[in-house]
Amino acid sequence: MQRLGIINYFSAIANFTGKTLTIAELEARKLHHDYTDLFTRAVQPALWLLVIGQVLAGIRAIPTGNLPYIDFMAPGILAQSVLFISIFYGIQIIWERDLGIVHKFLATPTPRSALVLGKALSAGERGLAQAAIVYVLALGLRVHLSWNIVNLLLVFVVIILGAALFSTFSMIIACLVKTRERFMGMGQVLTNPLFFASNAIYPISIMPNWLQVISQINPLTYEVDALRSLMLIDGPTIYGVPFDILFLLVAMAINVAIAAKLYPRVVI
Amino acid sequence: MDQLTISVEPGEMFGLVGPNGAGKTTVIKMLSTLLPPTSGNASVDGHSITHEAAKVRRVIGYVPQLLSADGALTGYENLLIFSKLYDIPRKERQERISGVLNFMGLTEFSDKLVRTYSGGMIRRLEIAQAVLHRPRVLFLDEPTVGLDPVARKAVWQHIQRLRADYGTTIFLTTHYMDEADQLCSRLAIMHLGKIAAIGSPTELKSSVGPNATLDDTFAYYSGAEVDTAGGYREATRVRRVTRRLG
User: Which of A99, A119, A263 to mutate to test the interface with B (most CBs of B within 10 A)?
Assistant: First the structure.
């Protein structure tokens, strides 16, 4: 009896994993048919690193210790571009709801959490493309990048977690507001506070106290902290990479659970 | 919806007709487990839609009124993804996919992006997606809305063959009376969330008068001469589908 229970448990996990990967595959196939999105998305990190980064580095106004400012900023800009991709992911489910695609998925024997997590992973796929772009830019700007294979693999993990976390957050908002017009407004309202109340382009220590408190509960801070430590040679970390990853993982799991609960409501 | 009671026999082609806004889509959404009923219950192939939703989803196919095939993928890819979601074993996938492509007359277009398909082809692909796993019951919500007469006829033929070849029970909604007459062995006319009449097309016609057409029957039971049905949201949806299919 107990053995049967364990077998059921494993087959449920296998089913969940298979369905999640199928949804991620669907998005990867779409991307494969049209790469233009990836190229247009490259403009923003390029602007930040080449224009704003160079200017801020030139005036030396931001204390970054022994780290050149452009080195400090590069991981922050990668986290930012992954955030910007992910935060507008919710609009995709509103769009797919308007088309009728969501209805059809919901009528298949697919766990709701697999539908959500599969989409979240696909945001990770796009996030990795951003990483490649930021690495190329950073290389051109002579950022002291670490090419340690373990670090690179962990960068991979952190980006997927970050993208999944913010894309599911975005899906939660989409399920609540339900229309494209309202969502567009929300997207703008959310992105900038998340970005500026983090350690992406300046250290937390120079922020006023109230902002420090907000930035310490902002998952983007932990994503940037991990990336800064992993991407750079002798990269600094405040919280430690294991804690950063744990924070991102827990936040993502909570978001997936909430989004899976809300997702079926988008068609009502 | 107001306390609806319908029973559909296995292998039957049953139609739910009524003006826009009568509640047809709501019924289909409930039966396909997308919308939980506020009270009451229904069973699909013996499974309760409230307590056994997961089991219901295994035995049904559902084609929404809206366009549900993904335009950014090829026809083959649309089918491949659904074959995985419906747990069709890896060994059987290719055979099933080429089978439905052939059945729906889409084999030569399988590697083209769906956004290049005609409206009728998209509908046929959507039906193909919904029957890959050989469902016991197929729900079709307004299967020919927005299609030109030739494409409508082709879709009808495929639906009829599906029932003849596989004995699939088909439950469809429509507001075209000729469609109901052509396809359905029995139909129910809905008006304001209730069943106004139920029976075979012939029975319904004779209940209204000796020379009544199905259109007369429809007008008689649904009060369709009064233009109150639909509303902005409904109209937007129908026109959007029509534009995308056209």
Answer: A99
